[in-house]
Amino acid sequence: MPSERAVFIIHSIPGRVRLGVDALRGDPARAEQIAALARECPSVVDARVNVWSASLAVEYEPDIPLEAVLSELAQIPELSACACLPATPLAPPRCAAPAEPPSPGRTARLAVRAAARLNAASLAVPPPQVDLKLLVPGLLVGSGVLQVLTRRTPEMPHWITLLKYGLDAFLVLNHDRIQRVFAGAGADPGAGADPGAGADPAAGAGEAAPAASPGGTGS
């Protein structure tokens, strides 16, 4: 008797369709028989079965409509549900496109944001002995330097990319700190000095000396 188990289209392009067939599970011998029966269909060029994924890949003549191929496959008891299948698989839900195209800068910014959140969370755990604003850039730069010293190319970004990531992370994470350093270095050195510190000592002495009396000298 025809099986009532599910049959559905996983993927299809002109000349090839992959079907999900629950009847293929658990019986490799019968699964191969189903593939052999599928290969006997007039429009089918080849058919291969995958027991682990319970799927049947069918290659057929590209100029033959998929509906005709499904109708032929429906003559196989386990594939009888093919007669009721739509000619096209259900479209998967579309994922939202990223707001920014992928790039090293975008990756660095995402890593920096994650590190900033992790750093803020770590400050709540006493004692805050490690500053991730310095640790994360240091790890990135250290990884790049290690690649150069060991002349190895592990499964990770190029050492130049790591150095760039480290520099970007340091500049972004420590932006306020860097601004304070430059603000302190650019301040006027004499802004807090005593206004009278640079006065001419001779001029001050002359002002302090009393004026000579006209009659103070005598013959």
Q: How would you describe this protein?
A:
It comes from Sorangium cellulosum. This is Heavy metal translocating P-type ATPase. Residues 188-219 are annotated as: Disordered. Residues 196-219 have a biased composition (Low complexity). The chain folds into 2 domains: 7-84, 2-Layer Sandwich (Alpha-Beta Plaits); 104-184, no CATH class. A 4-stranded antiparallel sheet has the order 1-2-4-3, with helices on one face. Helix 4 packs antiparallel against helix 5 (159-173). Strand 1 (7-13) and strand 2 (16-21) form a beta hairpin. By secondary structure, the protein is α+β, with helices and mostly antiparallel strands. The longest helix has 19 residues, at 104-122. Helices cover 42% and strands 12% of the residues. It contains 7 helices and 4 strands. The model has no long low-confidence stretch (mean pLDDT 72). The N and C termini lie far apart (153 Å). The protein has helices at 28-39, 66-73, 104-122, 132-150, 159-173, 175-185, 201-208, and strands at residues 7-13, 16-21, 44-50, 55-60.
